[in-house]
Amino acid sequence: MPAGLALRELETRFGTGLLYPYYILVLQQMVLAVPGTPRQNITGAFFANGEPVPFELVRMAFDAGTSFSNTTTGGHLRSLIETFFTKDGDATFLYVIKGDPFGDVSRRWLHEARSYLEEVSQAGGYEWQIAGMGAVTIDTQDSVLAAFPLVIGTTALTVFCLLGCAFGSVLVPMRSVLTTACTLVFVYATLQIVQGGAPYHLLQLELRAPWECPGVAWLVPVMTFTVLTGLNTDYDVFLVAGIRKMRALGASNDDAIVSGLRSNGGVITTAGAIMALAFSGLLASSTLAVHQVAFVVVLAVLADTLVVRMLLVPAVMALLGEWNWWPTAMRDADGPYLPLSEKSRAALL
After folding, report:
1. Residue 299: which of 197, 224, 198, 219 has the closest Cα?
2. Which residues form a coiled coil (predicted)?
């Protein structure tokens, strides 16, 4: 059996918490006082699967002059002490098993445990550390997600400035950022409902997805936000460049939109279909994060190229009219726009 499937089988049969416990380098008396830490979940030098080990037994296990030292239990106790204590005896560690070491309950426990241990260690002069896969993962999540709003704001500002300089307009980049945000909100909301089982309210009714929901991998929005922003902005630039070119040649705003859609719309849709097809193969992945990344990219590309760029953007630009290009002054429209072939035919007549 592949290691990935074997690990999943272990998680299913024994629980994720047993495989990824929290390791605490601190005296066990302090840990017992941490809220939400049942004794049976603690294993350390003086606790074996939640059962306290009397210090007298530990002393007798290391005393070669006692009969207890030569028993199997005495040997086990010596092994336990040697495992959980340093050779100098100046530090010990123990581990705490949580049901889901990566979930919200464990996150709250980790923050409470650190707050309590920090307070006690300052009063008693102890040093402590909490490690383990769950703690590392939660710390990484907190650090990345804390910086994520800054990434969103910086990306939006960068897109706004670049498009503003490229098109000499204020409303074009503003409209581009807002329409891209519409696509992203739709995609991430759909992912949350389909994969996360998030409740949503409709006419005061709370509805939930009727299927089993594995939850949303926290890395998915972080990994896909900038990629999707770049793709959607690229499609937008391709469309608006064609519209602006025709408007600069003297076509009216509405005629320029129609011409831009006619010349570039098919290419944008084809590019989106190719991108969606390329990522659709990852939908069959058994890895949750990879599967959800593929779902987000495929849905975002199709929604953006088929709906947002083909319907929403032209509609908004038609409503804005000449304000699309403000503060750049466009030449007056020469009348109804005719393609070059029709102009040549009209000139001959």
Report:
1. 224
2. none
CATH number of 303's domain: 1.20.1640.10
Identify whether the C-beta of residue 191 lies closer than 8 Å to the C-beta of residue 283. no
Give the domain extent around 302: 148-339
Q: What is the mean pLDDT of residues 329-335?
A: 68
140 belongs to a structural domain: no
Let me know if 171 is exposed, middle or buried by CB neighbors in 10 A (0-12, 13-18, 19+).
middle
How far is Cα 349 from Cα 337, in angstroms, rounded to an integer? 17
Residues 177, 179, 185: CA angle, nearest 5 degrees: 100
Which secondary structure element, helix H or strand E, spans residue 23, and what is its range?
A: strand 22-25
State pLDDT tens for residues 73-100: 777 767 766 776 666 666 667 677 776 7
Domain count for the chain: 2
Of 135, 167, 193, which residue sits at a domain end?
Answer: 135
Q: What is the pTM of this model?
A: 0.72
